[in-house]
Design goal:
By secondary structure, the protein is α+β, with helices and mostly antiparallel strands. It folds into 3 domains: 6-214, Rossmann fold, CATH 3.40.50.620; 246-337, 2-Layer Sandwich (Uridine Diphospho-n-acetylenolpyruvylglucosamine Reductase, domain 3), CATH 3.30.465.60; 354-493, no CATH class. 37% of the residues lie in helices and 19% in strands. It contains 15 helices and 22 strands. The strands form 5 sheets. Strands 3-2-1-4-6-5 form a 6-stranded mixed beta sheet, sandwiched between helices. A 5-stranded antiparallel beta sheet has the order 7-8-11-10-9. α2 crosses α8 (170-179), α10 (216-245) crosses α12 (265-280) and α12 crosses α13 (288-296). The longest helix is centred in the middle third of the chain and has 30 residues, at 216-245. Mean pLDDT is 82; it is low at 328-355 and 484-493.
Length: 493
């Protein structure tokens, strides 16, 4: 069976990611062979796929004149293809004390790309990781000591980041560059064995290929793909478990011991991971040692210290994950949970001193909104899996670009504007509420779903025209549920 060409694999990767015609792609170009091949392929596909491209180069401020020449080269190569290019310059002096140079550079690079994408209204950021990068990442994580999550390696798509070359080997990339006489820059630091990744690239992978498995790169990349699919399924099961057994929001969440005991260990571990991500707002993670200690709480009452000033405490039938008293003294804003039908609030629960104004929302996760005793969820869906039935104001289909930027729920603020579905221009949210006959006292309690700072849905009332689902391809399903189902919509629109 003939091998699919490099170009066609890029086309397939873009379509799988949901990249649509007329969307703008910001291409991250370092000047190296991988990114120059990606730029060349995407430029050749502009007419075929209806792409709009621009180029971004990140100057890390680490290699003096060589880095200056890289930036000049990228701008010139972009111009030769009729594309605009921007250069983002980083300052190594801003690296936090104690943080490794590589960790800082990676975080700063992606932050710079996100900022550039926002400025240019790009729906996607294309980066040039290859199959070899994937294999190196899997080995790197394995040597450090990791579980299935770490062995997933580099994701093909993450929010607006897409990696069209992830199924293409470095040898194929270099052959493509040679055939088309592409110019590229060589970063001397990639030859140094100071960095562990380079030692894996130059020594360990060639040894494994020579003495053990000539297709080791392909095998490791395939393993990452399989584990990514398995992990997605297990995480979905964990989220379903939390939907049924977790109570609370903000910095404190309670988990039912009986439900955790009944679940398979793999699902229980991910339920603990997901809960801790919600409590710590994604700022900290759990090691295998933490997870085993948490599973020990299923058998006995105890307290387990967790990273970032948090703890898990088992009291009878519930495990409470919360800030430690000495790390977060005083009242805990947001430590309020909606009361579910048939369940009384925990006797330890205290009403908050102030309702939350903003709450981050993670795709696929029910997120409580205490001011209206409801919860909201946004998840990607295939068009043929969308629930059928009459239109429900608690369930809306939106474009998948909703997930291109971080999501959050917040309340109305003076000056808020959006473009209501079916309207040609923007409208003040205050005027929208007046026209919809929403009582003044209710307006501050209605959650707004925002993506990248833009209002996508006045929850339960109207979506924004900018995020109207086209009716083709993947979509996002946004849903709201009220406690006990007792809320009545106060609108006639």
């Amino acid at each position: 069976m003939p091998k699919v060409s490099l170009v066609n694999r890029v086309v397939h990767a873009l379509r799988e990611a949901g990249v649509a015609r007329a969307q703008r792609l910001l291409v991250a170009v370092s000047g190296g062979v991988d990114s120059m091949v990606l730029l060349e392929v995407l430029a050749s596909l502009q007419d075929r796929l209806g792409l709009r491209l621009s180029v971004a180069h990140v100057h890390h401020g680490l290699r003096g004149r060589a880095a200056d020449r890289d930036a000049t080269f990228v701008v010139a190569e972009a111009a030769r293809r009729g594309l605009a290019a921007s250069v983002c310059r980083l300052d190594p002096a801003e690296r936090p004390r104690g943080e490794s140079l590589q960790v800082w550079a990676r975080a700063a690079r992606y932050a710079c790309l996100e900022t550039t994408a926002e400025r240019e209204r790009a729906s996607w950021i294309a980066v040039a990781h290859t199959q070899d990068d994937q294999a190196e990442t899997v080995l790197l994580h394995l040597l450090r000591g990791t579980g299935p999550r770490g062995l997933r390696g580099i994701p093909r798509v993450r929010r607006r980041i897409v990696r069209p070359l992830l199924a293409v080997s470095r040898a194929e990339v270099e052959a493509y560059a040679t055939e088309r006489h592409l110019a590229f820059r060589t970063d001397a630091s990639n030859a140094s064995d100071v960095y562990r990744r380079n030692r894996i690239r130059h020594h360990l992978l060639p040894l494994l290929a020579k003495d053990y498995n000539p297709r080791i790169v392909e095998s490791l990349a395939s393993l990452a793909t399989q584990l990514s699919e398995d992990e997605a399924t297990l995480t979905a099961l964990a989220n379903s478990l939390l939907d049924e057994s977790a109570r609370g929001a903000g910095p404190t969440i309670c988990l039912g011991v009986a439900a955790l005991r009944a679940a398979p260990p793999a699902v229980t571990r991910r339920a603990f991971q997901e809960t801790f991500q919600r409590v710590s707002q994604g700022r900290h993670g759990l090691t295998r040692r933490h997870l085993e200690a948490l599973r020990g709480l299923l058998a006995r009452d105890a307290v387990v210290p967790l990273p970032g000033g948090f703890q898990a405490r088992r009291d009878g039938r519930a495990i409470r994950i919360e800030p430690t008293p000495d790390a977060h003294s005083g009242s805990r804003p947001g430590d309020r949970r909606p009361t579910h039908a048939g369940r009384a609030p925990s006797p330890e629960w205290q009403p908050p001193t102030k309702e939350p104004d903003e709450i981050p929302l993670r795709p696929g996760v029910w997120t409580p909104w205490p001011p209206l005793d409801c919860r909201v969820r946004v998840r990607p869906v295939a068009r043929d899996t969308v629930p059928s039935g009459p239109r429900d104001r608690g369930r809306e289909l939106l474009r998948p670009t909703l997930l291109d930027a971080p999501l959050l729920l917040r309340s109305w603020r003076p000056g808020d504007r959006f473009r209501p579905l079916g309207m040609a221009g923007q409208k003040k949210l205050q005027d929208f509420f007046v026209d919809a006959k929403v009582p003044r006292r209710e307006r501050g309690r209605i959650p707004l779903l925002l993506t990248g700072g833009r209002i996508a849905w006045v929850v339960g009332h109207r979506i924004a025209e900018d995020f109207r689902f086209s009716g083709r391809g993947p979509a996002c399903l946004a849903e709201v549920e009220f406690v006990g189902g007792r809320h009545q919509w106060k609108t006639d629109n």
